[in-house]
Amino acid sequence: MNLAVIRGVLSRPADLRVLPSGDRLLALELTVRQEGRRTSSVPVSFPDPPARAEAWSAGEELVVVGHVHRRFFQAGGATASRTEVVAEAVLPVGQRAKVAKALAAAGAVLATADG
User: Fold this and answer.
1) 79: buried, middle or exposed (CB in 10 Å: 19+, 13-18, 0-12)?
2) For 55-99, what is the HEC assignment?
3) Is the overall model pTM greater than 0.85, yes or no?
4) pLDDT (tens digit, 9 = 90+) per residue, 69-80?
5) Reduced to 3 states, what is the DSSP secondary structure of residue 40?
């Protein structure tokens, strides 16, 4: 089972990229505060985001539901990798009903998982 739920603050403005295929991908960087006041930066890619997502700005608090993915690519003649969360849903924290619905759906996936 590969399920990720993250709540964090957008570290920089959302970056919309149009891929050679024509698909749209929104790149996000969330700062997540951990127990003991540690913080970490989590890269998030959001395929085919809604138009309103492009307006998110640094400092906005978001909830992300998705899965962890490690991708490999060539950089400087060497193979490099990046681990990121691929979002299925990204919602501002203030949209409590939509956040609750996304979290309930994630919980349902966990409840029906084999094993």
Assistant:
1) exposed
2) HCCCCCEEEEEEEEEEEEEEECCEEEEEEEEEEEEEEECCCHHHH
3) yes
4) 998 888 889 999
5) strand
